[in-house]
Write a structure and sequence with these properties.
GO molecular function: beta-glucosidase activity
Number of helices: 8
CATH topology of the largest domain: TIM Barrel
CATH class of the largest domain: Alpha Beta
Protein name: BETA-GLUCOSIDASE 24
Family: Belongs to the glycosyl hydrolase 1 family.
InterPro entries: GH, Glyco_hydro_1
Organism: Salix koriyanagi
Number of strands: 11
Low-confidence stretches: 212-220
Oligomer: single chain
Number of domains: 2
Radius of gyration: 21 Å
Order of helices and strands: HHHEEEEEHEEHHEEEEHH
Distance between the termini: 23 Å
Largest sheet: 3 strands, parallel
């Protein structure tokens, strides 16, 4: 994001990547600054990062950062592991990322363009079992709470949130082995679709207002979710 805000790549990229970086003319640099309408952030997980020795010579997209990263520290995962091995559920991370983006990139308008959690596609499970997804419901609740925290406590300009995904689908290297959807897709029965239990919470969250508390919710939890619902309904400028 440095080129979009400062007109050039950060100093450490020049140090690590050198002549492989594209070079901007003065005119191009000025055109780049502030040229975006909004910043889209995909957030799924957080890793621990550790510096690699300065004489590291490998060349490549991942190695240029000169760090190693892992979802565990001292054998303890940063959060519960989802269906795919790389996804550790760590809702606090989205708050930290949003706050960092605001502080370092001049308070841009932000949309959460992807956020979600998957589970393993088990053909042996019954439909009832497949639709029972408390981990997904809790994950969305906790991530939305942290988005709200960034908005209220840090002044981050978040305009929207997109859940990944509306329905189960082909997931890159995982194919159909995992399911991210709010709607279950029956791949063996003409792709028939069924709402998972998390859909009920999402519908309630999007429809209700501050005078309609969540059933069985604690007072504190209800206050947080009321705030989320009000923010979701607030009109936005085009």
């Amino acid at each position: 994001m440095d080129p979009l805000t400062n007109g050039d790549y950060p100093r450490n990229m020049h140090d690590f990547v050198g002549g492989r970086l594209p070079k901007f003319t003065t005119e191009e640099s000025e055109m780049l600054k502030g040229s975006y309408d909004f910043i889209g952030i995909n957030y799924y997980t957080t890793y621990y990062a550790q510096n690699i020795d300065a004489d590291y010579q490998s060349v490549g997209f991942m190695s240029d950062a000169r760090t190693t990263w892992t979802g565990e520290r001292n054998g303890i995962p940063i959060g519960p592991q989802a269906g795919v091995k790389w996804l550790y559920i760590y809702p606090e991370g989205i708050c930290k990322l949003l706050n960092y983006t605001k502080d370092h990139y001049r308070s841009p308008t932000i949309y959460i363009t992807e956020n979600g959690v998957d589970d393993v596609n088990s053909n042996a499970s019954s439909l009832k079992e497949a639709l029972h997804d408390p981990v997904r419901e809790k994950s969305y609740k906790d991530h939305l709470k942290n988005v709200l925290r960034s908005i209220k406590e840090h002044g981050v300009d978040v305009k929207g949130f997109f859940a990944w995904s509306l329905m189960d689908n082909f997931e890159w290297g995982s194919g159909y082995a995992v399911r991210f959807g709010l709607y279950y897709v029956d791949y063996t029965n003409n792709l028939k679709r069924y709402p998972k239990n998390s859909v009920n919470w999402f519908k309630q969250f999007l429809r209700r207002d501050s005078h309609s508390p969540v059933p069985h919710a604690s007072d504190e939890k209800s206050k947080i979710e009321d705030g989320l619902a009000r923010d979701a309904k607030r009109p936005r400028n085009a």
